[in-house]
């Protein structure tokens, strides 16, 4: 008889069902959930991702062989909507005989903590805090109610996974329970996903970038927390003194129209691209020279790790958990927060150190696109040794790339997807074992 894998129940030999409960999300949290679901499924867990699951996320979950259930997610934090969502989650988890419910971020955690009262038998409960707890409540009673929700969550959860020590410290200020409940598991990326080379002429054409321009990018949801407006102010200052730089904004969100208007007012329309949401972030980062993370608050940052893995310089505000990730990273630079001038100064330093482009590596011809797919390219043939008409993305040996990209080795050594999965699965085993023992003692 084969020994059960990490996702199997030791007594029954059946796969443990884990319900991942998520709010509507884009960016790092979405990528984290999809990567986690895929890894857990490969390791024998029965994973069901529940919440507001849009068509794109369904496709991505199908691709990693994870089940999903579109049970919706409340648009507000009202008691009525939260109670209804908790009831739907409890019915789902009960029907699936869930061994564990894993909520992602605070709003999902608040709902799941309510649902725990009604799930029979009561499964283990984990919540991952991907960001710092930020108060959105107004007035004394609003802030008091919010604090009580955090405390209820910390009291109900068997474990809180935090993606940086900065988040742990912030939660400890809200509740004394946090210290013993929190375990730090950093975001992880799969080095194999970043072991690619992309013909820059092709990708720049797809994105609408100037073939010969230096590219400075911001990647994330277009919401106030990402501080894209601060990025635009820094871009306007830099554009006044540094020519031939394109500014790439990757992401979607409610603030897009407002940000496009701001870019127009700052006279950045000619060299600023709003690329919208992209599933191919490694390929996009292959044509980026610098990624800027100007957030005013940041619990952690998956895009910082992705940029490092692709050999891209990172300029980030020294806030939250960013120092934990970037302090020792190659080609990473921390600057004062909420200071576009500090960003501009660091960008100038990096730009002055970029190697001059050889004549033979400059794009020699544009490409034609058929149905969104490159079908012919004469771009950078000599530098990239292209032999096939549509050979615009190639994978290289990891060891070779580790030597070329110190950031990829740094990420592989400290922030790999495998290490994240192992730490998460160890936490799963700890809480499900403790819950099983507690249930057995209760029955006696």
Describe the structure.
The chain folds into two domains: 188 residues, Rossmann fold, CATH 3.40.50.2000; 225 residues, Rossmann fold (3-Layer(aba) Sandwich). The two termini are 31 Å apart. By secondary structure, the chain is of the alpha/beta class. It has 18 helices and 17 strands. About 8% of the residues have low confidence. It has a seven-stranded parallel beta sheet, sandwiched between helices. The radius of gyration is 23 Å and the shape is globular.
TL;DR of this structure?
By secondary structure, the protein is an alpha/beta fold. The chain has helices spanning 28-42, 55-63, 79-95, 106-115, 139-156, 165-174, 178-181, 200-207, 228-239, 256-265, 281-285, 302-309, 322-326, 340-353, 381-384, 398-404, 406-414, 417-443, and strands spanning 17-22, 46-51, 67-70, 100-104, 124-129, 159-162, 182-184, 196-198, 214-219, 245-250, 272-276, 290-293, 313-317, 332-335, 368-370, 373-376, 393-395. The chain is globular and about 70 Å long.
| Morphology call | globular
Strand order within the widest beta sheet: 3-2-1-4-5-6-7
The CATH class designation of the largest domain is Alpha Beta
Strand content: 15-25%
With helices defined by DSSP (H or I, 4 residues minimum), what is the helix count? 18
Q: Structural class of the helix and strand makeup?
A: alpha/beta
Point out poorly predicted stretches: 359-393
What separation lies between the terminal Cα atoms?
A: 31 Å
Give Rg in angstroms.
Answer: 23 Å
Helix content: 40-55%
For the record, the count of structural domains works out to: 2
* CATH level-4 homologous superfamily of the largest domain: Glycogen Phosphorylase B
What's the average pLDDT?
84
- Return the CATH architecture of the largest domain: 3-Layer(aba) Sandwich
Report the biggest beta sheet as strand number plus sense, adding barrel if it closes: 7 strands, parallel
CATH topology of the largest domain: Rossmann fold
Q: Please tally the β strands and state the result.
A: 17
């Amino acid at each position: 008889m084969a020994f059960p894998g990490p996702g199997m129940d030791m007594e029954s030999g059946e796969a443990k069902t884990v319900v991942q409960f998520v709010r509507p999300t884009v960016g790092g949290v979405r990528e984290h959930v999809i990567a986690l679901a895929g890894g857990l499924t490969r390791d024998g867990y029965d994973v069901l991702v529940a919440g507001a699951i849009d068509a794109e996320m369904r496709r991505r979950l199908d691709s990693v062989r994870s089940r999903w259930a579109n049970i919706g997610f409340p648009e507000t934090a009202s008691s009525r909507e939260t109670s209804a969502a908790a009831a739907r989650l409890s019915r789902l988890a009960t029907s699936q005989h869930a061994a564990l419910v894993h909520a992602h971020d605070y709003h999902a955690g608040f709902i799941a903590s309510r649902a725990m009262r009604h799930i029979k038998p009561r499964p283990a409960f984990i919540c991952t805090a991907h960001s710092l707890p930020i108060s959105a409540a107004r007035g004394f009673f609003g802030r008091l109610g919010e604090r009580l929700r955090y405390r209820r969550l910390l009291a109900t959860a068997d474990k809180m996974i935090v993606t940086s020590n900065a988040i742990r410290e912030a939660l400890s200020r809200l509740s004394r329970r946090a210290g013993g409940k929190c375990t730090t598991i950093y975001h992880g990326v799969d080095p194999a996903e970043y072991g690619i080379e992309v013909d820059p002429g092709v990708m720049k054409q797809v994105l609408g970038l100037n073939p010969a321009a230096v590219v400075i990018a911001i990647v994330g949801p277009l919401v106030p927390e990402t501080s894209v407006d601060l990025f635009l102010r820094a871009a306007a200052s830099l554009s006044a003194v540094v020519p031939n730089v394109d500014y790439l904004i990757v992401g979607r969100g409610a603030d897009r129209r407002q940000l496009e208007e701001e870019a127009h007012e700052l006279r950045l329309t000619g060299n600023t691209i709003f690329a919208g949401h992209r599933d191919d972030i490694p390929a996009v980062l292959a044509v980026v020279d610098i990624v800027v993370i100007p957030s005013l608050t940041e619990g952690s940052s998956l895009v910082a790790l992705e940029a490092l893995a692709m050999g891209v310089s990172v300029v980030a505000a020294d806030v939250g958990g960013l120092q934990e990730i970037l302090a020792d990273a190659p080609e990473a630079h921390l600057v004062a927060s909420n200071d576009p001038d500090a960003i501009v100064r660091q960008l100038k330093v990096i730009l002055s150190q970029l190697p001059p482009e050889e004549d033979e590596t400059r794009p020699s011809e544009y490409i034609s696109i058929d149905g969104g797919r490159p079908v012919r390219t004469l771009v950078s043939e000599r530098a990239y040794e292209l032999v096939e008409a549509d050979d615009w993305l190639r994978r290289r040996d990891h060891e070779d790339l580790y030597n070329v990209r110190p950031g990829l080795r740094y990420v592989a050594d400290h922030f790999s997807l495998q290490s994240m999965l192992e730490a998460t699965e160890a936490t799963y085993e700890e809480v499900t074992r403790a819950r099983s023992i507690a249930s057995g003692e209760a029955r006696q």
